[in-house]
Amino acid sequence: MAFGDEASEAFAEIAPYRDGAVYVSYYSGSSEWERHPSGDEVVLVLDGTTTIVLLKNAIEERAFLTEKELVVIPAGVWHRFEDSERLKVMTITPQPTDHRLETPDA
Description:
This is Cupin domain-containing protein. By secondary structure, the chain is mainly beta. It contains 1 helix and 8 strands. It has one domain: Sandwich (Jelly Rolls), CATH 2.60.120.10. The two termini are about 20 Å apart.
């Protein structure tokens, strides 16, 4: 997935929540790396499939997710979505969010 204008069209803020917001997004493809230093992020797959990649101690850990599966990404852990197919996802995302195109140095 390309980021910039296309990304903003794929993500909709549903409601503010604490220091962030609840979002729903719908897309296919892969995302850039991101992390949320201020809190955990909750990710719930509403439809479609994806592989979530977590970068822990410079090692990429992958988990395949499908409809009705949920993952909590710990604060500060770099992560991205890979090979998403018609992914509709709801997230509870704290702010700020850091972004990287290249794999971060753990």
